[in-house]
C-alpha cells in the first residue's frame, strides 16, 4: 500500500488501481486490512492542504489526483463484503479493537504492552528516542503523512508488542530519508553485473547448504513442544476428551489430526465460545479449576512440565501420571478407562 501510494504521488497514477483487488484479497486473509485503509486515509488527508514548517511539509493534491484517490477508495469499499461471511468478516477487526475480547487482550503475550524491562523493549525505546534526538540535531524534513504514520506505528507498538511489525514499515521511509544524507543516490552505471550474479549464486548455495533437514527441524520443535508425548499418545489408547496447555494447541492440531484440542492459539474464537475463560480458570488454579475439568468430562491432560497445574496433579489421587519428559507431562484420570496398553504390557512383563 505504501509503495503504490508513493508511485501515485510521483505521477504514476495508474498504480492506484492495484489497491482495490489487493484490499479484497487482504480482507479475506487477515484482519489487518483496516490498517491499509488507515494508511490511505492519512495519505489522502495530508494532501488536502499545503504547508511547510521546519521538519514537516505537505503538498496539496491536484483536483484530478484527489478525485482518483477518492474513486479508488470507493471501489475498494465495494470489495469489503465480498467474503465467505459477508460483512461479518469485515466488522471483525472493529470488534477486536473495541475490546470485544478482553481476555485475549489481557492474557495473550502479543497483546501486552511493550516490555520495557526486557532487552527487546529497551532496544525499541532506544531506536525511538535515538531517531527523535537525531531529528532535533540534524533537522531533517519529512512529509506530513510520514510523520503521522510513524507516530501511529510507534504508539501502537508501545500499546501492544505485536505492532512492532506495524512500526517497521512506517519507520523505514523516515529512516531512509535520514540515511540519504550520507548514502549516495543509486547510479545504474556503477552496477557490477558479474559480481552481483556471483554474490546472488553464492547466497543461494549457502541457503541450500545450511537449510535445516526435517530431522533438524523436529529436534528444534521438540525443545518446546510435546513431540515425544504425542508419539506416546499415538501408540497408546489415551482416553479423551483431553485438556491441553494453550501453547500446545496449534502443534496438536497438526500432530493429532483425528483428535479435538481443548484450546489453541486462536484465542478470540475460544473466548467467544466461553472456553478461554474456562481454560484460564484451570490454568491459573482458581477455585473452580477441577470443577471445570469435570464439566467438560476431561479424562486426560497434556501439560507443560513446568506449569503449576502439573505440580498439583502429581499429588492428586484422582489423577495418574502416565508419561513425562523434560518438556511435557501427561495425566489420565484413574477412573477414566482401562489401563493403557503400554501399562498393561509393563505390568505383564513384571509378573
Give the SSE layout:
Elements (H helix, E strand, L loop, with lengths): L1 H8 L9 H11 L3 H13 L5 E3 L2 E3 L4 H17 L7 H11 L4 H6 L11 H20 L3 E2 H16 L4 H16 L13 H18 L3 H8 L5 H9 L6 E3 L4 H7 L11 H6 L2 H9 L5 H7 L4 E5 L3 H6 L5 E6 L3 E6 L7 H10 L1
Parallel strand pairs: 2-3, 4-5
Antiparallel strand pairs: 1-2, 5-7, 6-7
Helix pairs in contact: 2-4, 3-8, 8-9, 15-16
Proportion of β residues?
5-15%
Mean pLDDT: 90
Tally the helices: what do you get?
A: 18
- Main beta-sheet strand count, sense and barrel state: 4 strands, mixed
State the assembly state of the protein chains.
single chain
Which structural class is indicated by helix and strand composition?
Answer: alpha/beta
Order of helices and strands: HHHEEHHHHEHHHHHEHHHHEHEEH
Q: Report helical residue fraction.
A: 55-70%
Coarse morphology: elongated
Tally of strands: 7
Uncertain spans: 347-351
Amino acid at each position: 500500500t505504501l509503495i503504490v501510494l508513493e508511485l501515485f504521488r510521483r505521477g504514476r497514477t495508474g498504480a492506484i488501481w492495484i489497491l482495490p483487488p489487493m484490499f479484497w484479497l487482504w480482507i479475506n486473509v487477515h484482519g489487518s486490512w483496516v490498517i491499509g485503509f488507515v494508511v490511505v486515509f492519512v495519505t489522502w488527508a495530508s494532501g488536502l492542504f499545503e504547508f511547510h514548517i521546519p521538519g514537516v511539509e505537505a503538498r496539496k493534491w491536484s483536483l484530478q489526483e484527489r478525485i482518483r484517490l477518492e474513486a479508488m477508495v470507493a471501489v475498494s469499499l465495494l470489495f469489503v463484503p465480498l467474503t465467505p461471511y459477508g460483512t461479518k468478516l469485515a466488522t471483525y477487526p472493529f470488534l477486536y479493537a473495541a475490546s470485544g475480547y478482553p481476555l485475549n487482550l489481557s492474557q495473550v503475550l502479543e497483546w501486552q504492552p511493550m516490555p520495557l524491562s526486557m532487552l527487546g523493549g529497551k532496544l525499541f525505546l532506544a531506536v525511538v528516542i535515538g531517531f527523535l534526538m537525531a531529528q532535533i540535531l540534524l533537522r531533517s524534513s519529512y512529509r506530513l503523512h510520514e510523520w503521522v504514520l510513524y507516530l501511529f506505528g510507534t504508539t501502537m507498538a508501545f500499546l501492544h508488542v505485536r505492532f512492532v511489525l506495524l512500526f517497521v514499515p512506517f519507520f523505514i521511509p523516515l529512516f531512509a530519508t535520514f540515511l540519504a544524507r550520507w548514502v549516495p543516490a543509486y547510479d545504474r552505471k556503477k552496477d557490477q553485473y558479474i559480481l552481483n550474479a556471483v554474490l546472488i549464486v553464492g547466497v543461494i548455495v549457502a541457503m541450500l547448504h545450511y537449510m535445516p533437514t526435517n530431522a533438524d527441524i523436529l529436534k528444534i520443535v521438540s525443545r518446546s513442544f510435546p513431540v515425544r508425548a504425542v508419539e506416546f499418545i499415538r501408540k497408546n489408547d489415551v482416553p479423551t476428551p483431553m485438556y491441553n496447555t494453550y501453547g500446545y494447541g496449534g502443534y496438536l492440531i497438526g500432530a493429532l489430526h483425528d483428535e479435538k484440542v481443548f484450546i489453541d492459539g486462536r484465542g478470540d474464537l475460544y473466548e467467544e465460545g466461553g472456553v478461554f475463560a474456562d481454560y484460564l480458570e484451570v490454568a491459573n488454579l482458581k477455585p473452580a479449576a477441577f470443577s471445570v475439568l469435570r464439566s467438560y468430562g476431561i479424562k486426560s491432560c497434556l501439560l507443560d512440565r513446568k506449569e503449576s497445574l502439573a505440580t498439583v496433579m502429581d499429588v492428586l489421587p484422582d489423577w495418574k501420571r502416565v508419561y513425562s519428559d523434560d518438556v511435557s507431562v501427561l495425566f489420565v484420570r484413574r477412573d477414566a478407562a482401562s489401563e493403557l496398553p503400554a501399562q498393561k504390557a509393563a505390568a505383564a512383563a513384571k509378573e
